[in-house]
From TrEMBL:
GO molecular function, one term: sigma factor activity
Keyword terms of this UniProt record: DNA-binding, Sigma factor, Transcription, Transcription regulation
NCBIfam families: sigma70-ECF
Domain annotation RNA polymerase sigma-70 region: ranges: 23-89, 124-171
PANTHER family: RNA POLYMERASE ECF-TYPE SIGMA FACTO, RNA POLYMERASE SIGMA FACTOR HI_1459-RELATED
Protein name per the record: RNA polymerase subunit sigma-24
Database matches in Pfam families: Sigma70_r2, Sigma70_r4
Organism: Micromonospora arborensis
GO terms under biological process: DNA-templated transcription initiation
Family, similarity comment: Belongs to the sigma-70 factor family. ECF subfamily.
Keyword field contains Nucleus: no
Signal peptide positions on this chain: none
SUPFAM superfamilies for the chain: Sigma2 domain of RNA polymerase sigma factors (SSF88946), Sigma3 and sigma4 domains of RNA polymerase sigma factors (SSF88659)
Amino acid sequence: MDESDAALLARTALGEERAFELLYARHATPLIAYAQSILGERGLAEETLQDTFVAVWRGAGGFEHRSAVRTWLFGICRRQALKRLRGRQPQTAPAEWAEGVPSTDPSPEAVVIARADAAAVAGALVTLSVQHREVLDLAFGARLSQTDIAEVLGVPLGTVKSRLFHARAVLARALPAEVERTAG
């Protein structure tokens, strides 16, 4: 039976390298994908992953069990990635992301997204703001719950729901144009 993340982290806090290696093996792939989605470069994402696990090694004993270990790891990774972004030109989100209240019903936009092929989605993703890409990465790439996403991002749950709603809408609007380009 696999050890829980909490047990591995507790053993890591005691200096057990094997537990640390298992924690790394279990979480490195989604963390590097998340870092790359924030930074846009594989090399910077790899450096961020290294910094993340250095922080985990050093801070394992300080884990307070207020969240899942996985959520804690994504929070550390996010902070490390944002440190690397300092000094770069900040991107601003379009005003429409803050409009309206998200619906829990599947929308026409969600149907379009579900039917689009991966290449079209990848092309449309580049049209999204950083906030929209990040929330989609955490929800669909890392498969974190909305509550965990709110904790990682340090924002209220309602903000996460709003960002997800508007990210899907912006992505869905971008997809028809992207599908036409790839088909033509």
